[in-house]
Protein 1
Amino acid sequence: MAKQTWRGGNMLYPLPAVMVSCTNAAGEKDIVTVAWAGTVCTNPPMLSISLRPERHSYHIVRESGEFVVNLVTARLQRACDWCGVRSGRDYDKWAECRLTAAPSAKLELAPVIEESPVNIECRVRDVLELGSHHMFLADVLAVQVEEGLLDARGKLDLARADLTAYSHGEYFELGRRLGSFGYSVRKRKPGPRRRR
């Protein structure tokens, strides 16, 4: 199989495109679409988002020290894209997208997007000024989960949420389940013996 070598670039796809909600003490609020988001640590639970300093939401998050990562469903995808191409300097994204700001469980300022099935409440621990983007390392203080995503045993079933992903400029609805963590090494249950 022939391959080409390109200069270094961000080609780690697919990614979640999430909606980050934020508010500062002055009452400025925004929703920004972020594809540069990821898990950092399990214990303590941490994640990161990376923002360009020229984004309207950047100074809000920097001043407040908190934000909420709201997972995006197929139903929210249009709002997610719109919040990524319009600036909070020019629009009230909450009103334009008909989204509801609901209280966080643990944060003082940043609201959750009520229409999102999973809201991850974060407090900034550190800001790394890396270049075009600054990375906000954050502790996860709480996670709000829509009860309809829980199965009969109370286990989270995110497949019910119709989550979407971002890949090289395009959005995709997540599809067919291929397996669960560890399925490649799990011992098979013995089945009925075949007669010869």
Protein 2
Amino acid sequence: MWAYESVFYQIYPLGFTGAPFENDGVQEHRIRKVEAWIPHIKKLGANAVYFSPVFESDTHGYNTRDYKKIDCRLGTNEDFKEVCEKLHKAGIRVVLDGVFNHVGRGFTEFLDVLKNRENSPYKDWFHINFGGNSNYNDGLWYEGWEGHFDLVKLNLNHPAVVDHIFSAVKSWVEEFDIDGLRLDVAYCLPQEFLRRLRAFTGELKEDFFLLGETLHGDYNQWMGQDMLHSVTNYECYKGLFSSFNSMNLFEIVHSLLRQFGPENWTLYKGCHLLSFVDNHDVSRIASNLTNEKHLPLIYALMFGMPGIPCVYYGSEWGAEAKKEEGDPALRACFEEPEENALSEWIAKLSEAKKNSEALNYGSFRSVLLTNKQCIFERKTEKERVLVAINADAEEYHAHFDAGCGLAVDLISKEEHDFGGGSRLPGYSAFFWKMER
């Protein structure tokens, strides 16, 4: 699967382009801005772009009005088609946000229910009680996602609803040649729907990738041979920044051993979860870390651990924003991309990851672990890589059995001699490919 050997780049289009929050109905060709960023994305080493919602919605994209029409604030279907063509021409795959659990109050079929009530042919598309009332005083009650009544929950057990969604997905493949979907709140979607979607998209396009947004619980509920290929690894998202902030790398390594370790009871051995240090819903990592010196290190750990690394636009050069500042801060508009030492470092990590069988598919084993240092092994039959992190300001001399005397650092391309152990400079990270 191509996604397992990829580095993802996330763009939240409405924020990225500076579109107004409320859908003003004015068509602007803002999505074409992505084209100017393609050289930057390519230089960063990303070979897949995940777009947060792009279709016509009431406000933030997750309250869809029309699954087949690009949001007028972003442009036209033709605009987005050309963006996708240019991304593909640059060797970059395209993954769209599939928001299938709920729609907006401006969704055509829901408007029909508000107007025609029991006589609407779409009344069973939603979870409605005509004897109740809503927060909007509609004279009827309906289920909203987690109590948010601007997000009208769809009845995914209704055949016509599933047909409507599948028709949209088919049109996205035919019109934009998309390569996959990220399913919003996948933990809310019925497993039978996920199975049907997996079978349907597999017939539409070979190696069509399905990623699910999941927060807690056993990810195997939604991921498997006949369901999703991957899910978001929120457990390790928390463990990554918390480990650095508390200077306790035991936390993240414990999670990685629980998920991917050598024991038979580990949960996700052989799976490829989506790894990230931030996204459109959480504080940017540069604002979340208490020590800025840890910023390159947390990216090294994310790229070195099992999973598919995803970088959120702007964070590659250290943009800051806190969750409490609100969504506009998290989903900012940057006039043009910036390049600095951090983005150059991430580019090196990307190339190392994409070109290493061990980093893409290797097993996970902890080799050395202290509060401030960790070394772990990624290994396949053909390749063995050691990932080393020193989160301390002081130099650390690591004594461990390297299994050989020589290695090449995949990041710097320099040779390393393990005679007598290894010296880890303060605030350093290495990907050592071990010589046989």
Protein 3
Amino acid sequence: MEFAKFVNENFGIGKGDTVYVISDMLSLAKECRNRGERIKPDDVIDELKRLVGEEGNLLFPTFNWDFCKGVMFDYNSTPSKTGSLSKAALNREEFIRTRHPLYSFAVWGRNTQDFYNIDVPNSFGKGTIFEMLDSLDAKALVIGIPALSGLTYIHHIEAMVGVPYRYEKSFTGDYKDREGNVRQATYTMYVRDLDMDPRHINGFEPLEKIMLDKGIIRQINFGECPISSMTVKDTFEPVKDDILNNDSKNMYTYNHL
């Protein structure tokens, strides 16, 4: 597959890497068709597995926010709302879903059980999967969309540093676990303060430019499909600096109360 070779040669993703995949499959599929190659989500997953090997890890976001609306989270059947690649990964037997009802991942690889064992109420910050990505020097692979527009790790940084336009909000509801047991559970989300009306700026475009200029983000087009990669923890300091020293102006506009 040309795509897998492209990723390996241009971003150095290979054996032993932990890769957090953020994607728009339509953009990639269109480019592959232009090259005379038809691919399905499972083809992409197979090739990425081959690249990182069993000593690496693959994570696909399988986020779903219906728990916030009072809908029961069913570990085995609540669908992903974050794209066709994540849906495909969630349906594969070798992938295991992590346990957070809002921000779960479909995971495969060496540290699958470690990821599954994480069960903290908070979505971001200490003890979460996003913190574990730091410890594993995880790379983000962003396919078909701007480099930072789908990087949920930014909200982890916001939670770690603290921002005026978000606060921790608790949600309680029914939770059906992997074994089918139902319990009442409370999880939290670092939500936007609607009075401050924070709105991100074009997929964090100003911040993305800073990171591209500093070499934190590497971006190369696969034909007409943009592909980006970065070590996720390398984004921490630029985001922190923007929060503390620039009122987050490279990320958001918001009302200062």
Protein 4
Amino acid sequence: MSGMLREIRKFSCIAHLLAATAGLTLLLGACSGFAVKEQRKGQLGAAEQQQLNSSLRVASASADAGQLEAAERLYVQLSRHFPNAPEPRLGRAYLALEAGDFILAGKLFAEAEERSATPAARAEALLGAGRTGLGKGDTAGAKTHFAAASKLAKGTPAEAWVANGLGVVATLEGDHARARTRYEEALQLSPSHPMITANLVRALAQSGAENEARRLYAKYPASHWLDGDGAALSRFFDERKGAAAPSGAKVQLYSARSRDRALAAWGRLSSEEKDLLGSLSHRVVKARIPKKGVFYRLRAGPLADKAAAKRLCGLLKGRGRDCFVPAGKWTGGNGAGGEERPGTAEKNPDARAGGVRKIAVSPTPAAAKKPSSETPEAGEAAAAAGGAKVQLYSARSRDRALAAWGRLSSEEKDLLGSLTHRVVKGEIPKRGVFYRLRAGPLADKAAAKRLCGLLKGRGRDCFVPAGKW
């Protein structure tokens, strides 16, 4: 999958494509539902129209509830029963797009366009084709589809998302002034939409209107932004300050008995949590704790202030990582192993925590065999012995479930990289055999629910089944 595609999000009828390039997160939204009655008016009888509308609502509800197989099956049946209706193919196309099957998604969007009898329907199909192009890394193809959709989308729900899509393309092409114009058009059509607003903030900053970007960002409270966009934008501005904030706040991620282990932890964390830690430097701080000995604390920074550090720790903890904000500022020293003198306000933070502060990382085979003073803390140990789990997918075949894990573990590496997977066979009365993809172990149900919340925020299906791992 192209490096520009990071995740696909879905909120109710709105499906969002999230693309990343050069460290900039770009969101492309599109409403996958539109007025069925308008599109098919005059082509179906009243009874048929009512049946189609009702069945489409059932299929959409099934997809929203995570029953993807049932939704896909119903869309296929509707495609056969209503061969000239575009809606069932659009529904299947969005499912394929979310699953990362861009070939199938492109084929279905094209078929939906052929069957579209109104400009609104064609615009929706072309919009989906443009999103598919971005997913494949075909920026030129996406631009062509968005441009065609913009001529048809006037006055329809798709108009704002077409403008947003053209803004994404402009940003990928490096034309931030044009991107700004497109995002402003989209925001006029969908006032204060958090995802479009986030795009506009970035475009303003990159087109030279830094102060205007900051004012727009400050205009909204933290609750306005979706899925950590507020923290992401805060980091975005921090990055633009560059070396101007050498004495900002910091976070502590790990504590070990040796410098090598602390540095190895940074290697893992900076890779697995690249979206959160990629713009930060690291430092290993040596400290002696009375009656316990010497510890090497892994810290990252600089962050703008303690509020930014706390937001970062909140995001890391939501992914099962250990993190806290120590006292004192980020001071000089080299990133590989510079030392700083602990502040008087944090004489023994490790003792306060009840032992060595650790990050939840997958142990090496040697570490798994030989317990030591640096084995996972009690909650993590309990997880390894039989913690909670999450269900990510359900399919008719084991191969499809395993293929889903291959996609998910790659696309959501920051959330799933430390977990293992299982495929559980189950039979549902009157429906047959299904293969359920599950991941774990997690410390407890609360941790599993937090993980599901993060995955759902990215448009992934997830729930916490009963029983232990």
